[in-house]
C-alpha cells in the first residue's frame, strides 16, 4: 500500500477520529464523511484510497468505540502508523482488518504529504519523499492473515469454510 501521509500528533482520541455526535450509526459510508473532521476539516474531502495516517504516541485513546476504526477503514486508508496505540483501538483495528503499524522511528520522521509505502510482507515502511526505510516488528502470521482477510469475522468464516471442505 502506498499513499500520501496525513500527519497527526500525540493522543489522537477516538473522538478526534469520529466525533460522538455521529455515533447514531455504524454505517461505514456515513462515518467516513466525518472521519477526522474535527482534527483536520479537509481530511474527509481530500483523503484518497491508500493514503496513510501517521501519528505520535497513544493514537486511538479515549473510548473503546469501534466507530473510529470503521471510519478510517471506510475512508480506504491504506494503513495507520503511529509511535504507539491505545490497546483497545489496536485490537479493534486488527479485528476489522485495518493495517496498523507501530513504528516510533517512521512516525517521527514522516512529514505531512510525504509519499509513504507500507510493505507488510517485508515489515518495512518506505518514505519515498525522504528516501528512508524503516523496519517494524512483523505481525504473527495469524494476525497478518486476519488483516489480509479483511478482519476477524471474515477470517473465521473463511477458516470455517476451509475446514468444512476437509
What does it look like?
With 166 residues, the chain is of the alpha/beta class. It has one domain: Aconitase, domain 4, CATH 3.20.19.10. The chain is built from eight helices and seven strands. The protein has helices at residues 14-17, 28-32, 43-46, 67-74, 87-96, 104-109, 141-149, 152-164; strands spanning 2-7, 52-55, 79-82, 100-102, 115-119, 124-127, 132-135. It has a seven-stranded mixed β-sheet with strand order 4-3-2-1-5-6-7. Strand 2 (52-55), helix 4 (67-74) and strand 3 form a beta-alpha-beta unit. Helix 4 crosses helix 5 and helix 7 crosses helix 8 (152-164). The longest helix has 13 residues, at 152-164. The radius of gyration is 16 Å and the shape is globular. The chain starts with a strand and ends with a helix. The mean pLDDT is 94.
CATH domain topology: Aconitase, domain 4
- Distance from N terminus to C terminus (CA atoms, Å) equals 34 Å
Order of helices and strands: EHHHEHEHEHEEEHH
Low-confidence parts lasting 5 or more residues at pLDDT below 50?
none
User: How much helical structure, as a percent, in the residues?
Assistant: 25-40%
User: Any guess at the CATH architecture?
Assistant: Alpha-Beta Barrel
Q: Would you tell me the structural class of the helices and strands?
A: alpha/beta
Amino acid at each position: 500500500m502506498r499513499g500520501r501521509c496525513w500527519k497527526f500528533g500525540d493522543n489522537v482520541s477516538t473522538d478526534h477520529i469520529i466525533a460522538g455526535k455521529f455515533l447514531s450509526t455504524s454505517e461505514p459510508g456515513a462515518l467516513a464523511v466525518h472521519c477526522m473532521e474535527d482534527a483536520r476539516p479537509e481530511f474527509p474531502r481530500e483523503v484518497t484510497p491508500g493514503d496513510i495516517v501517521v501519528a505520535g504516541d497513544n493514537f486511538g485513546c479515549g473510548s473503546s468505540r469501534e466507530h473510529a476504526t470503521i471510519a478510517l477503514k471506510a475512508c480506504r486508508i491504506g494503513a495507520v502508523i503511529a509511535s504507539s496505540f491505545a490497546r483497545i483501538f489496536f485490537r479493534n483495528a486488527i479485528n476489522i482488518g485495518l493495517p496498523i503499524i507501530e513504528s516510533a522511528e517512521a512516525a517521527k520522521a514522516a512529514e505531512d504529504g510525504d509519499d509513504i509505502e507500507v510493505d507488510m510482507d517485508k515489515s518495512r515502511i518506505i518514505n519515498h519523499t525522504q528516501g528512508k526505510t524503516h523496519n517494524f516488528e512483523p505481525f504473527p502470521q495469524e494476525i497478518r492473515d486476519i488483516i489480509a482477510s479483511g478482519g476477524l469475522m471474515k477470517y473465521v468464516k473463511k477458516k470455517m469454510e476451509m475446514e468444512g471442505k476437509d
